[in-house]
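Lab notebook, bench 4. Still working through the backlog of constructs that have no structural model yet. Next entry is a single chain of 686 residues. Request: give me the structure tokens for it.
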Amino acid sequence: MSSYVGVVVSDPELHSQFTQVELRTLKSKFNSNKTLLDRFTVGDLPPVLAKLNAFSGTFDADEIKSVLDKSYPDADQEVDFETFLRAFLSVQARGVEKSGGSKGSSSFLKTSTTTVHHAINEAEKASYVSHVNSYLRDDPFLKSYLPIDPATNAFFDLVKDGVLLCKLINLSVPGTIDERAINTKKILNPWERNENLTLGLNSAKAIGCTVVNIGTQDIAEGRPYLVLGLISQIIKIQMLADLNFKKTPSLFQLVDDTQDAEELMGLAPEKVLLKWMNFHLKKAGYEKQVTNFSSDVKDGEAYAYLLNALAPEHSTHVTLETKDPTERAKKVLEQAEKMDCKRYLSPKDIVDGSANLNLAFVAQIFQHRNGLTDDSSKSTSFAEMMIDDVETSREERCFRLWINSLGTATYVNNVFEDLRNGWVLLEVLDKVSPGSVNWKHANKPPIKMPFKKVENCNEVIKIGKELRFSLVNVAGNDIVQGNKKLLLAFLWQLMRYTMLQLLKNLRSHSQGKEITDADILNWANRKVKRVGRTSQADSFRDKNLSSGIFFLELLTAVEPRVVNWSLVTSGETEEDKKLNATYIISVARKLGCSIFLLPEDIIEVNPKMMLILAASIMYWSLQQQSDTESNVSEDATDEGDANSVTGEISNLSLDEASESSPSGQDQELVTKADEDDVDNGNNKDA
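Model written out:
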């Protein structure tokens, strides 16, 4: 396992300005420049800082020089790491002034993790603590620590060992984490805490949270602004879970025709909630349109109309007749209490327009009483028309979560709707292949003219071909038109390319040999065999993989202590397979793998997901060896066999791969499968 201790800065105040993710990134940049230059001086800082993503497009080297000249007049002064960090903060602070303050994210599921402002909202903290106290009070492990007093910092202390984080994720999306994988001893050592936090963060990504600038040590240190940012996302996902057509088919009553229904399906959950709220407000005679959960609800009037419409038995005109906003807010909450809605907010939060707390309040009203009638004929007709097959839905979910985990500026709620203008695909391509996108040729949303969307998507196809994707007879218009098979085929190749590039970049000293699917399979088989285990996989389509034993043995091979074999079943029955598959996913995430598959993908042996799972484990394993080699090179031996990153993969040859995969079918896993998707999915060739 990698060391639990992160980058340490001697000045505590300076240290507190950065997350561990940021410190590791900046430390890497500092070390590389220090190695490159004979002497790293203040005069070298402007061009170095100008190349950082944080300042790209905001400052050029000359502007950075003018900022630093005030604090560091001696250009020949040698720079140490702490000076580098202080210079970074100086430029960052100037950037905030230049932009007029940081801009909030457009999506409720995107949370700001900037290190410039650390203020926390005490009302939100109290609300989240109340949520935890209410929903987890009967949890066998946590009940001895609950209830938490919101007036203290006990909440942040309880989060530090990762158990609360994991439990909250399972509360939000049941079954995400196999709780057998959580370390729940009363006293955990640093390794066990780090495992829990790693499991929690990777699982948070797997349910749609944005955790780009949050590391395990940030949570272990109980940093309030980061902890609350993450917890708020998890709770919102739970509160908005019913705002989709699978769980609430009656939502189709909000639209009149198929086109409107398709648009509604592509909306973010909070937008659906607003549409639901306005649907009832219009029927109740409220003449204004509510467009947000802040300024539009501050006077409490919309709430009064909404509650009167949903709960006429508690209806009262006194609320509307009350002129004072605070008094009206009090009466709104009194009326909500009669509907058994817990108070997520106070009258002051309504009057202040607290967006997060008002969102949670409206979501809870929806959960308790949505006021939609069961018009089964209308709901069924729309639902049948919109339902995708199970495999398509699973793939859409996987790619959506993967895209959101990359930290792109645009949050994706529905792959089939949000990617049709090409912009998000360009953002993803720029993330996984930096410099591949010529942004001068891109059209930024909102895009009203259809041909502008086609231009974006044509650029996407062009870049895909440059990356050697299989895109026979595919044009940008196919994406604009929402061809699901073609889009899923493209995203699969994009995910695979990203994984193979990560592996390739770990072995930069091994003559640039490209990694293939067969290399990954051969590496996995060699790893399992080397530790004396008997399982072997013929291919990523091998039906024996459904038992889960091979992947559990592979996980044991890369980290002997991570699998508790007393919890493993034989994998012979469907129930046993499900138990093993669920455990595999949680153990892999606990180890450090960022994966988005479901247990069903293992049970049914989805070859694409089997490849990504094996590649993720391989990447983690080689990453540990790379870290070890850079620190203690003499430890990089393995019983006479090459165990360095270079050696691990240099020893993989196509001849060896052929022994593990005689038919060579996994070597063609992408090209054959995706050509089939293209041939079957392209309307022009149908």
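Notes after review: The radius of gyration is 27 Å. The beta strands are 637-638, 641-642. Flag for follow-up if needed.
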